[in-house]
């Protein structure tokens, strides 16, 4: 399972949720895919939702952008369901799974994080398949990035 930040602590995302995220990102190839993972409840009894979002970037092969109206709807729905954004995710097409300079600029314009308690997951998609992944979190005034084992994402269970 993958640990993501939540309100200053770590929360474990079930493998089947991660598998849904990977399937969405692989299906988006050869464009970058993107979306969020929402969480409600606390502890082991919490529930998770993967919300794929359309990539409205003018250059979707090398960048991603959420449509403002889609992002607003996610936020309104999450608030109504008492959920929190646990993760923002996107893919890099035929490129490394690193939190790029552009990713940093989008997540922290002027060096101020927009979602400081949220994890950012980047998945490298090569030839339509996930090849590698990383997770970045805001700590000590910058994003800290660690690689993720893709074995964590290959849990295939009917959902």
Automatic annotation (TrEMBL):
Domain of life where this protein originates: Bacteria
SUPFAM superfamilies for the chain: JAB1/MPN domain (SSF102712)
Transmembrane segments: none
Keyword field contains GTP-binding: no
Naturally occurring in which organism (per UniProt): Corallococcus coralloides (strain ATCC 25202 / DSM 2259 / NBRC 100086 / M2)
Lineage, broadest ranks: Bacteria, Pseudomonadati, Myxococcota, Myxococcia, Myxococcales
The keyword Hydrolase is annotated on this UniProt entry: yes
Domain JAB1/MPN/MOV34 metalloenzyme residues, every copy: 10-148
Protein name: JAB1/MPN/MOV34 metalloenzyme domain-containing protein
Recorded GO MF terms: metalloexopeptidase activity; zinc ion binding
Assigned keywords, A-Z: Hydrolase, Metal-binding, Metalloprotease, Protease, Zinc
GO terms (BP aspect): proteolysis
